[in-house]
Design a protein that fits this description.
The protein folds into two domains: 1-18 and 187-212, no CATH class; 22-185, Galactose-binding domain-like (Jelly Rolls). 19% of the residues lie in helices and 37% in strands. It has 212 residues and is of the alpha+beta class. The chain contains two helices and ten strands; from the N terminus they run H-E-E-E-E-E-E-E-E-E-E-H. Strands 1-4-9-6-7 form a five-stranded antiparallel beta sheet, with no helix packed on it. A five-stranded antiparallel beta sheet has the order 2-3-10-5-8, with no helix packed on it. The two termini are 14 Å apart. Helix 1 runs antiparallel to helix 2 (188-211). The longest helix has 24 residues, at 188-211. Residues 1-18 and 198-212 have low confidence and may be disordered.
């Protein structure tokens, strides 16, 4: 029983070590607004049950970019603390809610540093998956893709910025952003060391089973 407990504790420690704190405030917009973010252009936060909002990727709320017949000019950004030389992992969900069908749009993701002059640590443009039938204005289905990129910080503060690059300003195609996270990237070597430490426990458990 003791050996089983040790094995459980060891595996729990491994799993917990992979859970990093999100460096961003309100990354999934669950405050129901853009708390923690700077916003310009056409961008709103809405609940999944609201008409023409679309189902969120995470939680109750999500951000809508280019909602309605307006110019696709949304810029959403947040400045956060970083440690120079540390590798970070950016993840986010992006998709579109489309009442036409088979459409796709683009979003630009930048990680910007001001150390030694403003420059990009990351500059990636992603394309949403092809849209799906929303099934109606309420709780409309959204075709999300989950994207992840790494970058190395070179200053104590860094800015994440999303820019809507939608090519179709029609109100029938709305960009959706959700589940934004920046965490310290896990180190494979650390995980391997922990697994190596647990291996003898697993081996001893098997040996004791055979003796019985």
């Amino acid at each position: 029983m003791v050996k089983r407990s040790l094995l459980f504790i060891g595996l729990s420690t491994i799993l917990a070590s992979g859970l990093q704190a999100n460096n961003l405030i309100n990354g999934s917009f669950q405050t129901g607004d853009f708390t923690g973010w700077a916003v310009s252009g056409s961008a709103v936060v809405c609940a999944g049950g609201d008409p023409f909002c679309g189902v969120p990727f995470d939680g109750t709320f999500s951000a809508t970019l280019n909602g309605g017949d307006v110019s696709p000019d949304a810029v959403v950004s947040q400045t956060f603390a970083t440690t120079p030389g540390t590798v970070y992992l950016l993840t986010f969900a992006y998709g579109i809610m489309d009442f036409v069908g088979g459409a796709t749009q683009q979003l630009r993701a930048e990680v910007i540093s001001s150390a030694g002059g403003v420059h990009d640590l990351l500059d990636q443009t992603v394309s949403s998956p092809l849209s799906v039938d929303p099934g109606g204005a309420f709780n409309a289905a959204v075709s999300y893709g989950l994207y992840s990129f790494t970058f190395t910080a070179d200053d104590t503060t860094t800015t994440l910025q999303f820019s809507d690059l939608a090519s179709n300003p029609s109100g029938s195609i709305d960009g959706k952003l959700d589940a934004v996270s920046i965490e310290v990237a896990p180190e494979p070597s650390s995980l391997l060391l922990m697994l190596t430490g647990i291996a003898p426990l697993v081996y001893r458990r098997k040996r004791s089973s055979f003796k019985k």
